[in-house]
Amino acid sequence: MHNIISEKFKDLRSQSTNYKSKFISAKPFPYIEIDNFFDEKFLNNVLDSFPKMSENKHNFNRNNKAEVKFATNLPENIPDNINKFIEYLNSYFFLNFLKDLTGIKEKLIPDPYLEGAGLHEIKTGGFLKIHSDFNLHPELKLNRRLNLLIYLNKDWKQEWGGHLELWDRDMKSCKVKIPPLFNKMVIFNTTDFSFHGHPEPLNCPNNVTRKSIALYYYTNGRPSNEINFENGNMDRPTLFQKRPGTSDDFLKTGEIVKRAEYKKIFGKFYIKKKVKY
Fold it and tell me: Which of 32, 34, 79, 195 could join 167 in a cystine, given CB atoms 3.0 to 4.6 angstroms apart?
């Protein structure tokens, strides 16, 4: 698997040292974006084999008032070369790179179930509202600590939108917008205060989609400063946010939507809980 990482970044230990201070000091919360981290030929093969989920809505569609996208985390739906890529991103070597880069003291643990992770695709009109992610793995009961996103979009135009937005912890303003360009890797801390998303409907042509691979990493326990104790729940689901000056009142109290139940709990906060049909 030596050809996964580009020549410039192959020495993972030195790269984690080079980027650590930038990651830790980043605002509005610790994050880093790195361009051309992966070997271009390898990532071209990943893009070429990326499944056309948007053409098979029955199996992959996630369409509700908080998100409109296509996704899969099932290995049988993911091509072999992408499964092997995911295995590498969950390997001992890459986990150590992430641990050194982020300064996380606890041992990082990958998620073999890809809960909420895997392959994501968004068509024109799609979006994902601003949120902080669920903080405890539903099966493993481990603390979610890191998000890793890899974008696969060539020749992406600014006017199409689709930028990843990072918001301040008071939800007063967007502080960072990251374009979803091919071979861009974004890593950021997952806490009660790491508000992010792609809230504006995508404006790309009908024959273009926004493609990405998402991986999440966990630890057994987390620092108390990453927890919003006002939520009153150490095991909480995804918490969506209302942006000021927008019409993000996208859910009614107790409304049930496909794949999840959303409930307004107070003010501008919403929670998401899985439901069975």
Answer: 195
